[in-house]
Amino acid sequence: xxxxxxxxxxVPALRTALLGWxxxxxxxxxxxxxxxxxxxxxxxxxxxxxLQQTQxxxxxxxxxxxxxxxxxxxxxxxxxxxxxLKAWEGCGYYARARNLRRAAQLVAQTGxxxxxxxxxxxxxxxxYTAAAVSSLALGEARAVNDGNVRRVLSxxxxxxxxTDAWVQARADVLLDPRRPGAWNEAVMDLGATVCTPRSPRCxxxxxxxxxxxxxxxxxxxxxxxxxxxxxxxVPAVAVLIGDAHDAVLERRTxxxxxxxxxxxxxxxRQDEDxxxxxxxxxxxxxxxxxxxxxxxxxxxxxxxxxxxxxxxEAALPRQPVAQAAxxxxxxxxLELLRDRQESLFAQDSxxx
DNA sequence: AAAGCGGGGTA
DNA sequence: TACCCAGCTTT
Length: 352
Description:
Keywords: 4Fe-4S, DNA damage, DNA repair, Glycosidase, Hydrolase, Iron, Iron-sulfur, Metal-binding. This protein is of the alpha+beta class and 352 residues long. The chain contains 15 helices and eight strands. The strands form three sheets. The chain has a four-stranded mixed beta sheet, sandwiched between helices. Strand 6 (288-299) and strand 7 form a beta hairpin. Helix 9 (127-138) crosses helix 12 (180-193) and helix 10 packs across helix 11 (164-174). The model is unreliable at 1-5 and 345-352 (pLDDT under 50). The structure holds a DNA duplex (11 and 11 nucleotides).
């Protein structure tokens, strides 16, 4: 009973409808400079990495900042990792920035890839990004499969549980081989501005006459929500040595916030309390523990980190906070001291 | 195949 | 609060 729309779909008419809408209503975005199907590869590449799991309005801000700091692939390849992470600060998923820099070093040596397969071989470039860059910059007929495409096709065909392979197969069939780059941009623009997750604007949709979910009357229920793992609590202690402007910072290793700097910290283990973890941390640093400044909690998609922030004293080198790439969590921890200093200052002012 | 990885917007 | 965002890598 499902299925048949796929067979019955008038693909040429659907292409005409969507590309006509795109030519009239498509978004004007800074990485869309140049001829259709022949965009500047570097600009498209940076945009596609930035936009992975990141909404366009946010990506726009970082795009300008990043291209100003690293105008071409050679500038990016030559930059220290810390500079690249600083430009990425606040954008999340920091492995993207580290992989991007590594990939730029490869491209600077071997040249810009000239095919889907060549792009796919670069670190940080998966099937989506390789399809996007090769269609937009090289004119290659590769269909992208992202969250927008998944939602649009789920509704178009009335499939509530679209698998990755299911989406890719339909996207491959629909892709207009005469305008692959424009087609990919059109589906994504439709998903971002019309065929939105919660309240789609079907009255403005060029695909409404073709859409199974629209015909069924409840398009907003497609696709079914993804099941997500529960958020885990991660308690930890951190020490602030120095002040809010110059502090002892450590480079975080591992996957969580890896590559960023942050206040020295230790996890609070199952069988211990915060003071015990503080003592272990101070022993490692050869630091003298001080009073509790407060707690900060930061929720990410899959982790809720609660940091107990203490003062400490130690003869360790401090660095300027403004030049370091920090997570939101560490910025909040530093604000504990900033707030405290300001309130002390306010009291001093009142006393005079 | 599933988990892990940021941070913020939206309803 | 729940869900999502121009996904990729590792397990």
